Amino acid sequence: MIDQFVKGLQKIDRFGAIFRPPIIDIHPEYRSVLGGIATFILYGSSLAYFLYQIIQWQSNQLLPKITYIHTSYDKKYYNINEMLSSFYIRKNYKPDQIDPFDPTNIILQPILSKFANQQLVESYSFFYNSNSQQEDIHEVILENIELNLNLNQSKDDPQIEYLLSFGTCMEIYLLEGQKCANSTLVNTYLNQKSHAIILNHYVKEYNSKIKQMQNVKKQFLAILTKNTTLYFQNQIRLSKTQIDNGFLFPSNSYKEFPMDTIIISQTTVPDSFYNVFGRATYLVMAYGLSEVIQEQYIEYPKISEVLADIGSIVSIILVLSYLFIFLNEHKLEKESILKVIQMYYPEFYNIKFSQNWYGKIVEVKQNDFIIDKDEFMLFYNKIQRIAAKKLSITNILYSLAKLQFLLQSTYNSDKIKLAHKIGIKLRQFPKFQSPQLIQEQLNIQEISRNDSKDHIQIHNVSNVNLNDQNNNNNQNSILRQETINKDNSKSIFLKLKDESYILSDEDFQFFTIDEPIVIENDILKSDSYFENNFIDL
Predict the structure, then answer these.
(1) What is the 3-state secondary structure (H, E, C) of 462-514?
(2) Residues with Cβ < 8 Å from 83, sequence gap 6 or more?
(3) Those residues with Cβ within 8 angstroms of residue 466's Cβ, 6 or more apart along the chain or in another chain
(4) Which residue(s) pair with 235 in the sheet?
(5) Transmembrane stretches, by residue range (predicted)?
(6) Mean pLDDT in residue range 489-515
(7) How far, rounded to the nearest angstrom, does the alpha carbon of residue 343 sit from its chain's CA centroid?
(8) How far is residue 153's CA from residue 150's CA, in Å, rounded to a whole number?
(9) Count of beta carbons in the 10 Å neighbourhood of residue 192
(10) CB-based contacts of 301: which residues, under 8 Å, 6+ apart?
(11) Within 13 Å, how many C-alpha atoms sit on residue 282's CB side?
C-alpha cells in the first residue's frame, strides 16, 4: 500500500529533471516523491485559487472598476415617478400629542405648488397615507412630479420647480374626507413648545454587488415653532450611469436616477410666503434639479482580467517549482553517477551510507560492517569524478572509437564490414490458416513437384546416365553446402578461426541492464580472466 502511494506521488511529479549530456540531449525524466508532494501542494494551491477567483467572479464578489465625473448641464428634464419625500411627526408617546396631518382635523395642510420660470402655475393638495409602522400617525408622501432644468428659462421649454408648503388649513384645497381643525385645536397645537417633524428623502443608487437599483433613505429632523418658518431648498442631483457587464467583450447598459439631494436650509417668519400662498406657512420645501450631474462608469471584471489575475498569482506560486526542479536534477546526477559506479563495481550494492539531515555522509558500511570513512571517501570521490565523465557523450564516443580500433587490430576489415549485414534471424511463428487455404497450398506444392519431374524428363532424358547422375548429385551437394554457408555467414558474428556461431534470441539480452544471463560453469572455469574477475551477487 505504501509502495503504491509512493509510486503515485512519483507519477504526479511535474518537476521532473531531464538528464542532459553535455553535447546531445536525451530525455529520460527523473521523478521523485518530494517532487510529487511539491506538485500536489503547488498545483493544488493554484487550482484552489483558480476556483476561488472564478466563484468570486460569478458571485460578484470581485469589485468592478468605478469612475465618475461631475458635469454641468444647462438643460435637463427628469420625471420622478416614485416616492421622493415623506413627512410625519415624531411620536413622543404622550396622551396630549396632536397629529397635525390628521385628515379629519388638519392643522398643517400640505399644498404642492408648481412653478414655471419662477411663476406659479397651479397649487393642489393630496391625500394622506397612514404610516405602516405606527397606525395612529399619518404620513404625507410626495411622489410623481416632473422637473425641468433650463437656465435660459425660455417660454417653449420653461424651468419647472415645485414648492411643498405646510401652513394653516384652507377649505378650498380640501379633498373628499378631509376637514380643517377648529381654532381651539389649532391654538393648542401652536402653543406647544416645539413640534418635531421627521423628513425623509429617497434617492437611488446602483448596487454593484447585486447589480440592481436600490432605494436609499435620508432622514432629517425639523423643529417647528409658531413664530418661524423653515425653508429647505432641495436640489436633486441626477446620476447618468453606464454599466459594462460583458463576459469577454463590452456590453453596455445605461441608467439614470436621482442619486442625492442637496439641502440648503434657512429660517424666516410665517408671513414670508403669504403673498404666494395666501396663508401663514411653517415649513416650505422647494424641489428642483441640480445643474451638476454625476456621470458614472462601472466596468465589471471580464473573464480575461480574472484569468490574468489568476495567472499572475499562480506564476508567483510556481516560482517555488524551480527549487524542486533543482533538487530533482541534483538527485538525478547523484543516482546516475552511482549507477555507473555499480556497473564497474557490482559489490558497491553492498555499500550502505548513513547521512545527517542535510545529506552529509557520517558513516559507511560494507557488508554491514563499519569501515574507515575517511579512506573510503577518498576512493569514492575519485570514482565519482570519473563516473561523471563517463556519463558525457564525448566520453561514450571516445570509448566506442577505442573499441573500434581494438576490433580492427584483431579482425580484418572484410569481417568487420560483414557486421553491417549480420543480425538475429526472426524465428518462425505458427501461422493461422483456414482449412481451405491449407488445401490450396498443398495443391500448389503438388503441381510444382509434377512440373519439376516433367522438366527433367523432357530436357535431360538423352544425356542422363549413372555417372552423370552421381556427378550431378555431388555438384548439387556442393551448391547446397555453399548456399548454407552463404546463409550462415549472415548470422555469424566475427567468427574466430574455424568456429561458427549462430545468433539467437538470447544474444539480444547481452549488455542489457537487469536482463538475466545464464553462464555455464565449464566456460567460466576454462578462462582465467573470467574466473578471476567473476562476481556473483
Answers:
(1) CCCCHHHHHHHHHHHHHHHHHHHHHHHHCCCCCCCCCCCCCCCHHHHHCCCCC
(2) 141, 142, 143, 202
(3) none
(4) 262, 288
(5) 33-52
(6) 55
(7) 47
(8) 5
(9) 13
(10) 57, 62, 64, 65
(11) 21
Is the whole-model pTM more than 0.85?
Answer: no
Q: What is the pLDDT of residues 133-154, one digit of tens each?
A: 566 788 999 999 999 999 888 8
Q: How far is CA 299 from CA 213, 242, 276, 428, in A?
A: 16, 8, 48, 75
What ranges in 150-196 are assigned the alpha helix state H? 183-190
Contacting residues for 371 by C-beta, under 8 A, at least 6 apart: 364, 365
Report the chain's C-alpha Rg in angstroms. Answer: 53
Distances (CA, A) of 317 to 48, 97, 143: 12, 69, 57
Instruction: Quickly count: other Cβ atoms within 10 Å of residue 101's Cβ.
Output: 22
Q: Count other C-beta atoms under 10 Å from residue 398's C-beta.
A: 13
Can you tell me the mean pLDDT for 205-219?
91
What average pLDDT does range 419-435 have in this prediction? 71
In degrees and rounded to multiples of 5, residue 495 shows phi and psi of -65, 135
* 340 Cβ neighbours under 8 A, 6+ residues apart: 387, 390, 391
Distance, in Å, from the CA atom of 353 to the CA atom of 512, rounded to the nearest integer, reads 27
Give dist(CA 87, CA 138) in Å, integer.
Answer: 9
**Tally of residues, the chain:** 537
At which residue does the C-alpha cell 417647528 appear? 224
Bridge partner residues of 258 (DSSP): 238
Render pLDDT for 20-66 as a digit per residue (tens, 0 to 9). 554 334 445 666 777 788 888 888 888 888 999 999 898 888 889 99
Distance CA 106, CA 169 (A): 6
Q: Where are the alpha helices (DSSP H) in 194-320?
A: 274-277, 303-317
The three cell numbers of residue 434 are: 483456414
